[in-house]
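Q: My labmate handed me this sequence with no annotations at all. I'd like to see what the chain might look like in three dimensions before we decide whether it's worth expressing. Could you predict it?
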Amino acid sequence: MAGQTGSTEGLVPVARPVIGDEEIAAAVRVLRSGSVVQGPEVAAFEREFADLVDGRECVAVNSGTSALHLALLALGIGPGDEVVVPSFSFAATANAVRLAGAEPVFADIEPGSFGLDPAAAAAAIGPRTAALLPVHLYGHPAAMGELGRLAERHGLAVVEDACQAHGAALGSTAAGALGAAGCFSFYPTKNMHALEGGMVTVADPAVARQLRLLRNQGMEQRYRNEIVGANLRMTDVSAAIGRVQLRRLPAANERRRAHAALLDRELAGLAAAGLVTPVVTAGARHVYHQYTVRVLGGRRDRLRRELAAAGVDSEVYYPVPIHRLPPFQGWWELPETDRAAAEVLSLPVHPTLTERELARVAEAVRSALGAWGAQGDLGAPGDLDTAGRADGAVPSAVA
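A: Here is what I predict for the chain of 399 residues:
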């Protein structure tokens, strides 16, 4: 029976950061050079990353949270302003708004892409709204066309939280080039990493200069402080590792997409058991930072236990929506967000998975859900499918 056999092999991890000989050699080279903080490696990393985001100016910082924080500040967003954000994200999305002195206003998500719902965002706009902050969650772009038009009508800035979307795109436009600013994270489990770090991508050179001032104590020239800033610089060690990872990114993303396509095929037919595989909206390039399914009928946590017993790791991103965390609790009614938090489960999809490991993931899910069948109340997967795949969306990793 499912969940009773266990696994005699090692755990298939939900994430496995890549730190190879090239990354180690790059770090050692920088350490031996003696130039280790915001030097030539950072400048080179910024130039090279620009190719990923359609030639935008890039400003490297020490984390994805810093990228979000400084992007808001550089765009003039602060006390008295409101920023519309999804609650279904990591807390850093809303933390950055508060750190800038503004107030997050939470809006609900689309059930298929898990991105900020344009209709919900429109309803959340008020007289103090200064910006929209959509999240390209799990590597799938948010509905940037509609959100961009909404922002234009109301005179709002759009800041992309692209921390999980390195290499994603909507049509021919890269994530990070779809708003006034794009923000990336280089945490070790991302599609590419720098051990730690972040990047802000902007089209306006004046905003880029403001970002450079903000990250470096308000100065471009030493001891010529122009504004109040902070020390949020990236090290050259991180940048050197990031440059290696950036070269690896296209092939790594293709492996993620291929792994997702395989899981799509292997898990097809489990809808009766309450499994909804990831949705890809028309025109979107999903880079599968996570392969996130929905498990209907209140059985998500049971499936996690059975997968663990079979030697397959999984994770819930995110079990508690931001609007239900103590610093942000309020009057919010976000039914799609609450539903997603209760149903989502991320399975291993990272590029270092072997064929054998992928087969174990698929078999563990099929074994568990196949034993359950269609018994019990599994919610309304048909309704979710209709909502999640509106406007030509397709359930395919290679859309």
